[in-house]
């Protein structure tokens, strides 16, 4: 599984389509995105195992900005960060996209 992360609107999906040679239909069939949207009280390890069955998992980085005042929003960001760590552990390749530029953090691009 390839885990692709980075800021919102940084070119993650475009990178995956180009790197894998997929069109939008193939992307929808082989990848899952918005993995940072973790349901409240989710079993993060089980969720990471389920997501890791996809060829590619895409998630926006969260938590780099202003910390929300709302406790539920803070908890959701914490869960999203913990899930990203679990996905990175399970991934063969981890790529961070910033300004459309890929940076391989783990493994190698196919």
Q: Can you characterise this structure?
A:
Helix 3 packs across helix 4 (71-90). This protein has a 5-stranded mixed sheet, with helices on both faces. The chain is globular and about 40 Å long. The termini are close together. The protein is an alpha/beta fold. The chain has a single domain, classed as P-loop containing nucleotide triphosphate hydrolases (Rossmann fold, 3-Layer(aba) Sandwich). The chain is built from 4 helices and 5 strands. The model has no long low-confidence stretch (mean pLDDT 95).
Structural class: alpha/beta
How far is the N terminus from the C terminus? 11 Å
Write down the CATH topology: Rossmann fold
Low-confidence blocks of residues: none
* % residues in beta strands: 15-25%
CATH architecture: 3-Layer(aba) Sandwich
Residues in helix, % = 40-55%
Total strands: the figure is 5
Highest-level CATH class: Alpha Beta
Q: What number is the mean pLDDT?
A: 95
| Widest sheet, order of strands | 2-3-1-4-5
């Amino acid at each position: 599984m390839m885990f692709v992360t980075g800021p919102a609107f940084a070119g993650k999906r475009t990178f995956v389509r180009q790197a894998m040679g997929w069109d939008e239909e193939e992307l929808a069939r082989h990848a899952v995105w918005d993995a940072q949207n973790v349901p409240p009280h989710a079993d993060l390890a089980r969720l990471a195992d389920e997501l890791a069955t996809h060829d590619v998992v895409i998630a926006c980085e969260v938590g780099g900005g202003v910390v929300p005042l709302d406790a539920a929003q803070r908890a959701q960001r914490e869960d999203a960060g913990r899930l990203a760590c679990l996905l990175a552990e399970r991934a063969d390749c981890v790529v961070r996209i910033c300004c459309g530029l890929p940076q391989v953090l783990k493994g190698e691009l196919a």
